[in-house]
Amino acid sequence: MCGVTDVGWSRDLFYLDLSEPFEGSLPSLVDIPSQLPVDGAFVTASTGGSDNSTIFIFGGLLTYVVNGSADNSDLVFTFSTSQNIWETPSISGTSPTPTPRVAVKSVIDKYGNMYLFGGDGGGGVVTYSDIYILNTIDLTWSYGGSVNTTLRRTLATGVLLNSGEILYIGGYTDGFKAVDINTVSRQILQHTVMIDIHKQTNIL
To answer: What domain of life does the native source organism fall in (predicted)?
Structure first.
């Protein structure tokens, strides 16, 4: 959903149906007519909610569909996969600041908590190192804290481990400088602590 096309940002939404066996080439993508009120790029998304059937998208660079003006008033939109409906949920608590929040990385745990780390204000000039948590069941925000400036990242990859840790790999830091791929940021969810670990490995 969303993304950058050859004509600008989009609100496109499509899926790949893997429910039936196939051989050779993959099945065709299924396009869903989107009623999302904004075009967006560099958003992040996770599936959550009470029955794990709602897609939550957060942040990114957004513009109103009707007039193309920048829109950062709503940070979260939801899409019900059972009803094919877009909504703007009402969420209590203190939402992430400052905005916009671009290229944030999200992961979600089995309790419906969507962890949002890092990102930037657009263009990668200034990156962030704080963590916000969206409870996708109760629709509440909580602040996970800010970590030291060496852990600022945008466009990173996040992996949630069974141990309750999140590893953030790669991405960029202030000034759009690439982060050493061997430096992994580790977030320990139980303590909301993040540290850097440096792993020597051969990258093929």
So the answer is: Eukaryota
